[in-house]
Amino acid sequence: MGSSKIKISSKSALPFRSNNKEKRKDFHLKQKLARAALKREQQFRRKKEEDRDPALREERRARNVPQTIDSKRVWDEYSGDEGDDLGLSVDVLRGAKRVKVGEAQEDEEDAALSESEAEEDAELEDDDVDSMLDEEEPKSDASESDPSTTRNPKKRPASSNPNPRATSPSGSTTSTNLNLAPEKLAQRYPTLFAPPPSEPKVLITTSINSTLHKEAELLTTLFPGSHYVPRSSHRYSHKYSICEISRFASSRGFHSLVILMEDQKRPSGLDIVHLPSGPMFHFTLTSFVSGSRIPGHGRPTNHYPELILNGFRTPLGLLTAHLFKTLFPAHPELQGRQVVTLHNQRDYIFLRRHRYVFREKRASEKSVVDAAGKAVKGVEDIRAGLQELGPSFTLKLRRVDAGVQRASGQVWEWRSRSEKARTRFQM
């Protein structure tokens, strides 16, 4: 006997009620198999149709874009009344593009208006030429002899345009506050946005009586030109404060101060002070992994690394990116093939250090593709290999102080707060 084909019951959407547990179990199992068979049949039918017409496959893939938290990100609308620019989630790059688009639109409108004015002037000139053929010649002669009534084609009367251009009822594209631009941030923080030195000096220390000496030594390999000074709390020693350490470092030519915080003998925070007078950034530090614990790790060299800053889009993000930019030399040594990446995603900054090498593409590998999924021209047969060097950790910005931290009365520029909306980010 041939096996009967499984079909979905018309009552599959209704709850199957039976006092017999085995019957309920058998019914739901059959319905599950029938739904799986129907779905598989639809997939094979769709595959055949897409093989005949590849455009259907491209259309389906373009339509089936997954929705993520990053794609649902919510941005703030800046009205110009807020005083704390760092607390606004505004895309600076998008605002700059909107300004350029608005300027281009205004230029087009001005060009169209000037063309219409030129056409009106040409029509008026034609009317003057035609009036010379009128029957009333003495009147035309009088008008020609009187210079006050002579029309100047270059000068347009004020009342010639009965419909002047009105203002737009909606907000203009050029209404973005310029305080969010990097130039305005540079005026607010001139020392941080100043041209960085060719070889910045970084002083690394820890919290009082810390045991994280090995982790602090690893940070000296991460930041070029850095020096580690232990911070003791001996009963007969002087317990230097952050202000005193900042004055000490600034007088000796250091440009930044990095403080590694400790909690239960583990790294828990990272405070960075831009010398000589701030600002001061407070980060929480998690997932600290040294290079020796990374599988297949490499050994870092003393070459200046390249710096990649990714995902910093808001004014606060740009400020943080400029802070990290001051910790690394402006001219990397490319022969070392080392790169430090600071990737911001959902307000978490992931720090990684790699060594890269360019090699030929293997037969089993795919070519490098762009954001649209198409192969990049010129590098079809080239691939890049990465080897992680370490250390790796994750940072989250908690507070930005106006100056160097004091014992009390600290003035902060920005601090994080608990956000109820999962789609709103600060950086």
TrEMBL record:
GO molecular function, one term: rRNA primary transcript binding
Residues making up the signal peptide according to the UniProt record: none
Record's GO cellular component terms: nucleolus; preribosome, large subunit precursor
Domain Brix: 198-406
Amino acid composition bias (Low complexity), ranges on this chain: 1-12
Biased composition annotated in UniProt, kind: Basic and acidic residues: 19-29, 38-62
UniProt cross-references to Pfam families, sorted A to Z: Brix
Gene3D superfamilies the record matches: Probable brix-domain ribosomal biogenesis protein
Domain of life per record: Eukaryota
Compositionally skewed regions (Acidic residues) per UniProt: 104-138
BP term (GO), one: maturation of 5.8S rRNA
PANTHER family according to UniProt: RIBOSOME PRODUCTION FACTOR 1 (PTHR22734:SF3), U3 SMALL NUCLEOLAR RIBONUCLEOPROTEIN PROTEIN IMP4 (PTHR22734)
Protein name listed in UniProt: Brix-domain-containing protein
Species annotation: Patellaria atrata CBS 101060
